[in-house]
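Today's session is about reading a structure prediction critically. Students often jump straight to the picture, but the first step is always the sequence itself: look for stretches that repeat, for charged clusters, for runs of hydrophobic residues. Only then move on to the predicted structure, which in these notes is written as discrete structure tokens rather than atom positions. Here is the chain we will use throughout the hour.
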Amino acid sequence: MLPAAACADNTLTAVSEGSPFPGLKAQDLTDRFITLPSESKGRVTLITAAFSRPEEGIIESWTGPFADKFSGRDDTAYYEIAMIGDVGWVSIFIFNGIKGGTPENKKEHVLVFWEKTKGEFREIFSAEDDSLIYVFLLDKEGIIRLKTSGLKAENKDIETLLSAAESLIKPLKK
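Below is the predicted structure for this chain, in token form.
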């Protein structure tokens, strides 16, 4: 089965700002399977995707300020996705390693993607460098409103991200 971003003729389409986030099923660290973006409908959602194990603090440089600013709200969400892929019998060791190293209060925000379609998502996300973090800000309908990639977020990155999130949360006045 192809991801949601696949076209009818089975060609893959890279996502961009203004396009829907592709359907992606992953397991959180509380052992619950969720599908994005349907899980986050009605909420402005930050998604980070890593195709390899990032250095300590890189993902948190993106998600931390978002979580701090919007914690306790029911109109925002964030997810950190480890794009592992199908690794067979070692998956339980990887999952338990990620789970053991994650604080309890973050376990519902950290997702592990196990599917064989990891390569397709690499293409869909235009993920040419596995060392980078791929960042998506979705509106309440699951449409990508901000897409970027990089290593550790800098102040200007966080300002842009938080400003964009605030503008999506607040309804436009007529």
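Discussion point for the tutorial: The helical segments are 58-70, 91-100, 118-124, 155-169.
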